[in-house]
Amino acid sequence: MANRAELCVIRGARAGDPASQLALGKLYLFGGTGLPRNMPTALHWLDRAARQQQAEAWMLIGSHVPLEHARHCLNEVLPWYQRAYAAGVEQAGLVLAQLAPADPATPVNPQPRLQQPLPQQERLAADAGCRAVAAAAPSVLHAALSGVEAARAGRTPAAGSREQLAGAPALAAHGVEQVIAGPAAARHAARSGPALPAASGGQSTERLEQAAMAGDRAAQLALGLWCARLQRDGQRQADGIATVNFKRAIRWLTMAGGQGDAEAWFALSRIYLKPEFSQRSVAEAQVYLERAAELGHRAAQVACGLQAWRHRRHVAGGDVRAVYWLQKAAAQGSAQAQQQLDRIAQAPRGAAWVQALAPDAIAVLALRQPLLAARLMLAHAFNLTRAETLLLDVKEADHGHCLVVDIRASYGRSKRRLVALRTAQQRQLLDQVVAQFDRAGAAPEGNYRQRLYRLKHCLPALAGAGCSAPG
What we know:
This protein is an all-alpha fold. It is built from 29 helices and 3 strands. The chain has helices at about 5-15, 20-30, 40-50, 55-65, 65-70, 75-85, 90-100, 120-130, 130-135, 140-150, 160-165, 170-180, 185-190, 195-200, 205-215, 215-230, 245-260, 260-270, 280-295, 300-310, 320-330, 335-345, 360-370, 370-380, 385-390, 395, 425-440, 450-460, 460-465; strands at about 345, 400-405, 415-420. Strands 1-3-2 form a 3-stranded mixed β-sheet. Helix 20 (about 300-310) runs antiparallel to helix 21. The radius of gyration is 35 Å and the shape is rod-shaped.
């Protein structure tokens, strides 16, 4: 257990005092009276102290922290190894040398010590996350930094720098090009995939953060997905940062979503469903999921449709909303949505009892019985039974994307069902029928038996086709 003095150091370190952070890092590095040695925790506090200009902190990192304890945060601590090696710490040079690929055919000469890096060089190395560049050994790293300085100053890099890079692994050369390319390359990389910082050899996210803070939507999305360790489809990344930072992820994804990025809202919905997230909220997840669906995200539309269908017994109109989202997803080529849509909303086909009716007969009937003729047109197009044809409230049944056939209030033996509108011709026909009922106004049609009687006598061709019995 920490003693009183060590507790004071801990409180000061947590409050942001650089001297206390350095002292706490040393306590964990060498062991204290009440604190055991803990290399990862020591590296954490020494790194924070080094960021606040504590020179002893990065010297201790270069002298005592081996590579295996720094791999999980190499992007952040690599500049400290570089600075310590430039200051004469041989152990830091060994760490940098371990980053070089083991190739027996390529002799690795003892690298000349890096010149004292200028403050600007150090900042550029930290910004670019030189883990990929350092894979080519410190000599290549020095050439990379020299090339960067020349590019920034508007000069042509020395030929020797390019020759050294030509002999380095492709990954290292790619890292140098990323440094030289600047924010534009970061934005292009962000659009290429969300896991770029992890997938491109540990490239630092600082360039990406600069683009994101400047308002680049793709960079904001990439950072948010990376911090949450999510892929674009909502699945967990197999690699990436060592720990998940949901707070940062939500910040960047919210900014990207505010600019109309559907993938950002979808990722937020997945985060709020995670059981390990302390602020887990199914309601919040649903809000973000619907935002993504409204912006055209296909997976979000499928998820909204399936969820609405599962809750149809508890939420009024849930089945109608399910058909709406599934139709949207199916229009984008989702096989899962199309399969579910075929199951819950049958495709309309001609009703068998009205197949014998000729179109010209309906046209003639429309002159004497326009509403009855309109109902027969619906029956032929949407596979309605006789009872549904005569009792359906056409205006209430029309929901734009589907027809809700529900006559249970007047005909107890029937069941509620949905018929999806799949073609422009079906939508046009339904519009014509609705317009016909609008023109008729409050004209009485009578009850079901009166309508059925009128149907029998107006269509003698159907009288012998099974119309003698109601329903």
